[in-house]
Structures are given as C-alpha cells and as structure tokens.
Amino acid sequence: MSNLKKEILVLLDREQFISGQNIADQLDVSRTAVWKTIQALKEEGYLIESVTKRGYHLKSSPRYISPTSLSVLINKSNLFNNVEYFTTTPSTQKEAFRILSETRDPFMVVAEEQTEGRGRFERHWESPSKTGIYISLVLRPNIPITEIIRFNLFISLAISKSLDEAFGVETGIKWPNDIYLQDKKICGFLTEVVSESGVINAIICGIGINIFKDVSRTKIPTATSIEDVVGTSEKVDLDLFMERFLDNIEVYYNRFLTDPFSSIRDDWKAKSIIFGKDLRITETGNMFTGRALDINDDGFLEVLDEEGNIKKVISADIEL
Q1: DSSP-assigned beta bridge partners for residue 180
Q2: Do you find a cis peptide bond into 144, omega within 30 degrees of 0?
Q3: pLDDT of the residue at 307
Q4: Assign residue 168 a region: left if phi > 0, alpha if psi is -120 to 50, beta otherwise?
Q5: How many CA atoms lie within 13 A of 31 on its CB side?
Q6: Position 32 confidence tier, pLDDT thresholds 50, 70, 90
Q7: pLDDT digits (tens, 9 = 90+) for 160-204
Q8: Residue 22 burial (10 A CB sphere; 0-12, 13-18, 19+)
Q9: How many angstroms from the chain centroid is the CA of residue 193?
C-alpha cells in the first residue's frame, strides 16, 4: 500500500478544498506526484473534485471498503498491527490460519469475495463480491480456553453497536454468534482458537456481514442486508463503518481481557432477541424446545425446557 496514498487521503477534506501545492509542501513531494496519487485514489473509487486555483475536495468514499482507508485506520489502531487485503479468497479464516505462523502480532484479513465462506457447524456463508464485509480478526490473548464463551459475548456487542452507529439501525443479538436486524439475520461470526495445554495462543474470529442487496440472498428468507433496510446504497458508508468497527472491537476486546461479563451483562441483555420467546435448541445432537430465562455471569444461557427443568446451555444452535 502506497504511503503517499494514505498520507494524501488523510489530508483530503470533505468540507473544504486543499490545494495541490499545499499537499506537496506538507508531504515534501512534487505536484506531479500529488496529481498521480489523486488519480490512483480516483481509480480506487474515491470521488475527488478538482478545481483550478482551489485544489482538491473529497466528495465521497468508494462504494466498497477502501484498502487505502483501511490501511490508514490500521495505522491508528492500538490493537491491530497489520491488515491483509484480498480481492478474492476461498475464506478469510483459511488465510488467517495460513498467516498465523508468520507473526505473533494481532492482525486482520479482509476480502472482497469468499468462494468457500463458512459459518458455525460448517454451514456455507454466501460471500458474493463486494456485497458484504468478510473479515477475520486474529488476536493473541494468552488466556484459558474456557474464556472463549465470554469472548463471543463481548465481540457480539461490539459488532452490534458498530452497525447501529454507522448505519442508524437497531440490531439485536441472537446468542451466541448472530446479529439480527428486523427479525432477519444480517451477520454471523465464527470463533476458532489455537490452544496448547488449555491456554489460547490465538483467537481467529471470522465475521460476515450482509451489506448490499444480492440476488443469491433473496433465496434465503431469513437473511437481510443493510441496504435492504436503509433503502439505498447512498446511505451506506463502509469507511465510516470500519472506523466504528475497529474502535468498538478495541474497546470491547480490552474490556474482555480486564472485566467480567457482569460489566456488560445489562447492555448485552438489552440487545438480545431471544428472551421471552419459544426456542428450538440443538445441543450436542440433542434437540429440545424451551424459553430463555437469563444469562449468567459465565455466559451460560439458562433455559426452561418443556418439562419445566432449568438447563444451562453452553454452546448450541438456536432457532427462533
């Protein structure tokens, strides 16, 4: 990723013009270098207005995630040190596992398209090009493997809040790994770990979010997208979403490392969509119906089954 592209993108303003000479002076480069880099940003999808004697003005970001903007955000991050960006890949999870041995630092993998995207229980996740956000987060917490249940709770809240803040929607959480919008699934995430002697060496969290309308998704009656809800792609700013997403992931991951689940329990329950509803629960091959009563401080779901027994559910597939 060109450093000059990142530096010029930081200087460009949506509210006012900045002259090419001003940019050149601040970055100690030639006017020609500035012009060429502006053209490269335009090719990446940025709408940049050029006016003689006034300079350049950033009017809008690309429709999809900008590699340059993403790189700028990673440079500002206190959590992630690097991002790997792919136009297409079988899966960001596969890429993340491949890169694991090359670094001990936290990093992200982002792809425009996945050809073999998957969710929990090896379910296929439709990942058409530039219609969704496909990300794998790689974190190095060095904690007991039993803590992974809490991780999912903190990270689901971070994702839900990011969607709400960036797009002006109101999402809900379906325990343990799904985000819903208007009673339909908009996001799922898959958490995998590398561990040794009961200690997690790496968390690899793959996240898929439906952003734009897509024909393949219309065949899934339980799925929706941000564009389906907000009504137009013009209201979808993915650079803004990625900024909120990285901020919230950092906040809630740090809270996960230092705080008990009880510190976010009320916020999480306020976001949950499963309480007070009859649920079909499949746990280790056993299916039963019941009603979610509560979630305890360990992150276990407390369910009243059809026979009047209260069960603690640790990991399961839930159907509303």
Answers
A1: 172, 185
A2: no
A3: 87
A4: left
A5: 7
A6: very high
A7: 999 999 999 999 999 889 999 999 999 999 999 999 999 999 999
A8: middle
A9: 18
The DSSP string of 10-62 is HH--SSS-B-HHHHHHHHT--HHHHHHHHHHHHHTT-EEEEETTTEEEEEE--
Measured in degrees and rounded to the nearest 5, phi and psi for residue 102 equal -90, -15
Q: Can you read off the two tokens belonging to residue 28?
A: 């100690």
Measured between alpha carbons, how far is 45 from 157 in angstroms, rounded to an integer?
31
Dihedral sign of CA atoms 75, 78, 81, 84 in order: negative
Match 């936290």 to its residue by tokens: 106
* Residue 294 bridge partners (DSSP): 302
Q: Are 138 and 100 in contact (CB under 8 A)?
A: yes
Every domain of the chain with CATH number 3.30.930.10 lies at 67-269
**Could you tell me which of 191, 121, 118 has the C-alpha nearest to residue 150?**
191
Paired tokens of 293? 């009563």
Q: Does 80 or 283 have the greater pLDDT score? A: 80
Q: Give the gyration radius of the chain's Cα atoms.
A: 22
**Sole residue written with tokens 């050809």:** 115
CATH of domain 274-319: 2.30.30.100
- Give span(s): CATH 1.10.10.10, the chain: 3-60
| Domain 3-60: top CATH class | mainly alpha
3-class DSSP state of 190: strand
* Contact between residue 190 and residue 206 where contact means Cβ atoms under 8 Å apart: yes
* SS3 of residue 256 by DSSP: helix
Count of beta carbons in the 10 Å neighbourhood of residue 218 = 11
Residue 267: pLDDT over 90? yes
Distances (CA, A) of 178 to 8, 21, 45, 312: 38, 49, 31, 19
pLDDT in tens, 200-222: 999 999 999 999 988 777 778 88
Q: What CATH number is given for 67-269 in this structure?
A: 3.30.930.10
